[in-house]
Design brief:
This protein has helices spanning 20-31, 45-53, 100-128, 150-170, 191-195, 197-206, 215-226; strands at 11-15, 35-40, 57-62, 82-85, 132-137, 175-182, 237-240. By secondary structure, the protein is α/β, with parallel strands linked by helices.
Length: 247
């Protein structure tokens, strides 16, 4: 019997795979059988080592996505079927204090580089007649406003919109484009929130599941969206948030 969740024979590129959600996704894809390339500004040696020690196949690739066009050269002739756009940054400030430099930095990484990296991936898949899977990492702030994160919120609303428009263009051509909107996940990036007793309590009170998510919760969803099991899933933003948005 064929496993509809198998990624054997597929080649995946995961941006921002050195830690947290990106690392978990890279490990999850490799466990499902994919050959994984971990791309980003920071070395992904730990991720690659964990994958290879478990018997998987992985490599690291340096790419600085603060240059929005840096991903344009990653795909030609490389045989990639899967792209996970996980790399992202956040700048916090009151809206009246936000600077143009901070706005541009967030938009360049979270939205502009995501689009042009995905464009290059899509061009290669369409030119070769190869099926493809794109999974963008969106956010709860693709749906909500947040506080003190104007550029981040705008960028993640943009990610949701791009996911839908690219799905509309590519669905009939064999390329699935979807997104995951993580809820509150226990990673290094959220350590300060979890250490703040009052803030942590307020967050947990809002989550119907009653606990923070794990990076592996996002990993399993990414494997699904990249697998044959999700072949008819296009343009969706799948919330993995313990019920946060349902509250």
């Amino acid at each position: 019997m064929t496993n509809p969740f198998s990624l054997h024979g597929q080649r995946a590129l995961v941006t921002g795979a050195n830690t947290g959600i990106g690392q978990a996704i890279a490990i999850g894809l490799a466990a499902a059988g994919a050959d994984v390339v971990c791309a980003g500004r920071s070395a992904s040696d730990e991720t690659v080592n964990r994958i290879t020690k478990a018997g998987g196949t992985a490599a690291s690739c340096h790419v600085d996505l603060t240059n929005p066009m840096a991903g344009q050269e990653l795909f030609a002739g490389q045989g990639f079927n899967i792209l996970i756009n996980n790399a992202g940054i956040i700048k916090r400030s009151d809206a009246v204090e936000a600077t143009e430099a901070d706005w541009d930095a967030v938009m360049d990484v979270n939205l502009k580089s995501l689009f042009f990296t995905t464009q290059a991936f899509g061009k290669e898949c369409l030119a070769k007649g190869r099926f493809g899977r794109v999974v963008n990492i969106a956010s709860l702030l693709s749906f909500q406003g947040g506080i003190r994160v104007a550029a981040y919120t705008a960028s993640k609303h943009g990610v949701a919109g791009l996911t839908k428009t690219l799905a509309n263009e590519w669905a009939a051509k064999g390329v699935n484009v979807n997104a995951i909107a993580p809820g509150y996940i226990a990673t290094n990036n959220t350590a300060a929130l979890r250490a703040d007793t009052a803030r942590n309590a307020a967050i947990l009170d809002r989550i119907p599941a009653g606990h923070w998510g794990k990076p592996e919760d996002i990993s399993g969803t990414a494997v699904y969206l990249c697998s044959p099991a999700a072949s008819y899933v296009h343009g969706t933003i799948l919330n993995v948030d313990g019920g946060w948005l349902a509250r």
